[in-house]
Amino acid sequence: MGAAHPRTVEFSQHFATDLPEMAVPWQAAAPPDPALLVLNEPLAHSLGFELGWLRGPAGIGLLTGTQPPEDATPVAQAYTGHQFGTLNPRLGDGRALLLGEITDAHGTLVDLHLKGSGRTPFARGGDGLAAVGPMLREYLMSEAMHALGVPSTRALAVVATGGFVRRERALPGAVLTRIAHSHVRVGSFQYARLSGNDDLVRRLADHAIARLHPAAADAANPALALFEAVVAGQAEVVAQWMLLGFVHGVMNTDNMTISGETIDYGPCAFMDAFDPATVYSSIDTTGRYAYGNQPLIAEWNLARFAEALLPAIGPDQDAAIEAAQEVLGTYRGRYSTAWTAGMRAKLGLSADVPAETAGELISAILPLLRDHRVDYTGFFRGLADAADTGTDTTTGDTDTADTGPNAGTAAPAVSELLAAAPDFSGWLGTWRGLAPDPALMRRTNPIYIPRNHLVEEALAAAESGDLDPFTRLLGAVTDPHTERPGLERYALPAPEDFGPYRTFCGT
Description:
3 domains
């Protein structure tokens, strides 16, 4: 029997009803002694939950999946995936459950999904569990990305199970409750296509259109319009990753959503020193998913999506392939447009600056950052001060001093970051001659991100029962552009003795 819950929150089962071949009804494992660790109160409120109820026994039952509401039918979703380029035909939710869909404050249907809720038929020998550290990492990273304006799944809560999971050592267990516009992935379409059931592919396309891209329904070829919308969305979101220095770490096709949301914050991190070859994932031994490879990997994944979608695009396979290739061919231009616009904003360049001039500035500064291993986030935030104060940051000479509330920053001055770069003075002079807008730069370039050393510090403390470092870091990164007294250490690069840094998938 399901638990009573506030009737303002009603569950629907569109995915399970539309696509029963891809939804296995399942029950979450009962945790031995569940306790709420962290609750996203603003998100809970926007979803219509009463906070007192959600913190109580019935709410904990919902957040662990052990007492689902009567109108919820938990299911494990089936999907396929290319993992590091190798096709695994049967992945699916091995340790996750979709409880159903609910409507948020904007009238938008969103998934309520659990991670770490126990083994399912897709577990492939795994225990189906998750540890406190990786679940708090996903909470922290996804909320930081949301605050930065990047489309992302979001974290509603993390509940400690009271039990332990065995990884390299025994770790305290936890369940994450995740919100997304949809958990349908490229791998979902691959699963449908590999089933040999073309009708299932078409029904999955119809489901994705109705749920995520309704404008495609009015197109002459709705499935092709769906593909075009997904190509556009992925070009935008990957450009945002690159602009922020975010390294996803595991861009398998089962981790690319049709909604355009960033999903699966396992072996992910924000780049410290700028280097396109940066890899943080312990399992990415070849650098397939290195920072600089992410735009091309997204294009490769989209090609796999096109292959899976062909039966829905049309009965003539040759014509469907040609049409899909034409749409896929727009990806690089879309990505380049989004990335270039973002870089112009990072540099504070107005629309009056010619494209050629902006392109030369961008092309010149990135090699300097790479060669001198400059902190990526700190450089762009600190550069706003060079525009704001009129200081030649290579010499310290000041033309006009700005002592207003936006002058100065907790981030290192660019003179410190590029002191050894003889070419930087000329670049800086050219850039300042274009009258860059420091206010635009501060709106664009965060001062606070989940810096890797701070993330590890917070997660280590949380595993020992101290959530204060996590709470303080979360408070910083969920208001990433506003400098605040007392948060100076959150703006600084990692100590020199930190690293090499590696992240793990947590399974």
